Amino acid sequence: MSSNAALTDLIIKMADDELVQGHRNSEWTGLGPVMEEDIAFSSMAQDKIGHAWALYRILHENLGGEDPDRFAFMRPEKAFKCSHLVEMPNSGYDFSLMRHFLFDHAETVRYESMRESSFEPFQQLSKKFRGELKYHTLHADAFLIQLCNAGEEGYARMQTALYETIALAAGIFEPSAAYEETLIADKVYPGEKELYSRWLDQIYPVLVKAALNLPDMNTITPVYGGRQGFHTSYLVPLLKEMGEVFNLDTEASW
Amino acid sequence: MSNESLDPRVNRLKLGDPSAVIKVEEGENWNVYEVFHQEKRGAHHEHVGCVHAPDPQLALVFAKEQFARRKKCVNLWVVRSADILAFDVEDEDMFANNLEKNYRDASGFKVMEKINKFKQSK
Amino acid sequence: MYGGGYIFDEPNGKQLREEQLHDDPEKLAAFEDRIARGEKIEPGDWMPAEYRRQLIRLIEQHAHSEIIGALPEGTWITRAPGFKRKLALIAKVQDEIGHGQLLYNAAETLGKSREAMINDLLSGKSKYSNVFNYPAKTWADVTVIGFLIDAAAIVNQVANAKGSYGPYCRALERICYEESFHLKQGHDAFIELATGTPEQKAMLQDALNRWWQPIMHFFGPPDKTSQHSEKLMQWKVKMASNDEMRNQFLDSYVPKIWELGLTLPDPLLRKNTATGRWEYSDPDWNEFFRVINGGGPCNAERLQVRKWAEEEGRWVRKALMNPAERRSLPVA
Asked: Residue B97 domain-assigned?
């Protein structure tokens, strides 16, 4: 079994991604392009935040971590390990949809790879989130393919969004300098490099159906840094806003 | 204006001129699909409402969250509202005599009465 | 969520008289008999033009109130304290959009398209509940809205669910079920502050003081001044009088506020034990009409944000439009 430090590091990365992505997506709740889509997108935002909560609970219950609320709402920016992709503001629905597509497929391959994880709580999450993620990717794929096949504007917007997000999304798979090999050797999960390649295999056929151009991935530089606590300038205000009420009195019950 | 909202989400939006006339075009909210919900295996699919969607696939995607985000559900159907054929409401009278046709109903046959009568006659 | 106090069209306007002249007296009698027997009216049924018009107006205002109502609470989505509150608030605001969806569908069965209704909202032609034109200044406001405004909405919606129009009743049945979650989560968050630190309690008391008048306005002007025609009652479009619903709300919820040691900013508020009715100071009804006519603190922002949302989403909707599709209204 991997050391608690290695597992903790991995869980924080996964959970922080889920929390911040869910938080960003929830900014659309009530403001979506059509009521039906508003409802669907909001459900998926809730699922992400729910995933984060479940992961922080594992930290708390299995690995001696802090209470999930305190951990999520009080940590300083430096202690966050989310990727830059999820930190970016919602510039438009095209950007949000593309990020949702790329992120949810990445999440899917990650949890899928943990079905047989040596860390038992991952096995449980993998089973538990499966149906939700199936819906999320069904939604993302359907929207992407339809928008791209519907006409010039939809296609152009989604292609631009793909160019804007692809290097950021590749940054999800930033390997850990300290723990990567142990986690792989201990069969916690197959490691970031492997997940990255499975992710590309999974998104590629959908992009083909949408007739989108995926840039040559050898020419792009994945945006790393988030996993080491280096963040975009968007994270500090996001965290301040998220913790605004909680931090009025961290000892109080809200 | 856009920097005075109490909602930080709203402050991040580039709001337009408040007096601008914004009109949604007819059909912009797509077509209507009726949604049928199956609560458990073995149960009928029951009509629960409708969604606006551009095609059946997205209708199903939308129906899942609008009509099956709470409570039990194992399956959903969607069908274009335009494809539903129904009787006119004025045709309700075609069904009016159903309850009188008790020869179609178990309650219309008084077997025990006849048996008891026979037993008493012996 | 939604309150009473919707603005029915002048029942004695010229338009009504002309339309009523065209109603076939035999059909009208059959229609009224059906309602008197407690049967529901369904979309394809013959109905008086005035019944259709008032129902569209009512259901549309209700629907608008849901999607506008998502905005004041949405103010706190990104700041809700802790996972449980954060998830519950997003789910609650999502439900409001869901209710809007159900209600626009119900109104569409009467022949007005969703697009036409949205346009009437954006242009200011069609109204929504006044209460959403007030700002949610602190987290405590969210708990007051979630507890008391939803409670008030339930009083109104439970009454309306017994109305005569089938599609509206069916939508309300589902809505009332979800409102019970809203009320419970609101009450829970409200109690948390009421029983919390002195600062939390002060925050809640302040919110309560600010929201009390809009809540008293919620059910609409007093019966003695508002003109709800007997016809609308007979047709089961309007199900209970404003004062009746207000009294029912006060009776159920004032004790729940007082039992937590909170006060309400009305020295005259008390239950008359002899009559069983609540007595209160008349809220400022000029303010009520000023807000309805666009003069509230948030009217402009609410519409501006809705316009933004419609504009921002337009490319998605337009891209997926299929002009060759056979379009139709909801069946039921």
From this structure: yes
Q: Is residue B50 part of a domain?
A: yes
Residues 6 or more apart in contact with residue B60 via CB below 8 angstroms: B76, B78
Category of A113 on φ-ψ map: left (φ > 0), alpha (ψ -120 to 50) or beta: alpha
CA gyration radius for chain B?
28
pLDDT in tens, B26-53: 999 999 999 999 999 999 999 999 999 9
Cα(C159)–Cα(C226) distance, rounded to whole angstroms? 18
Q: Label residue B2 by pLDDT band (50, 70, 90).
A: very low
Interface contact C311-B7, CB threshold 8 A = no
Q: Which residues contact C11 (CB under 8 A, 6 or more apart)?
A: C50, C227, C228, C229, C231, C232
Chain B residues close to C42, C-beta within 8 Å: 89
The verdict on a CB contact (< 8 Å) between B53 and A36 is yes
Is A69 an 8 Å CB contact of chain C?
yes
Number of domains in chain B: 1
- pLDDT at C9 (0 to 100): 62
pTM: 0.95
Q: Across residues A186-215, what is the average pLDDT?
A: 98
**Helices marked H in C259-331:** 285-290, 299-319
The whole domain housing B85 covers 29-121
For helices A152-170 and A93-113, angle between their N-to-C axes, nearest 10 degrees: 50
**What confidence tens digit (pLDDT) does each residue in A102-146 have?**
999 999 999 999 999 999 999 999 999 999 999 999 999 999 999
- Asked whether A114 and A189 are in contact (CB, 8 A), the reply is yes
Above 80 in pLDDT, residue C236?
yes
Q: What is the pLDDT of residue B1?
A: 42
Tens-place pLDDT, residues B71-80? 899 999 999 9
DSSP 3-state of C86: helix
Q: Which domains does chain C have, with CATH numbers?
A: 14-319 (1.20.1260.10)
- How far apart are the C-alpha atoms of C68 and C65, rounded to whole Å? 5
Q: Which CATH number fits the domain that encloses residue B42?
A: 3.10.20.520
Chains in touch with C (3+ beta-carbon pairs under 8 Å) read A, B
Instruction: For residue range A159-175, list pLDDT tens digits in order.
Output: 999 999 999 999 999 99
Specify the CATH number of the domain A4-248.
1.20.1260.10
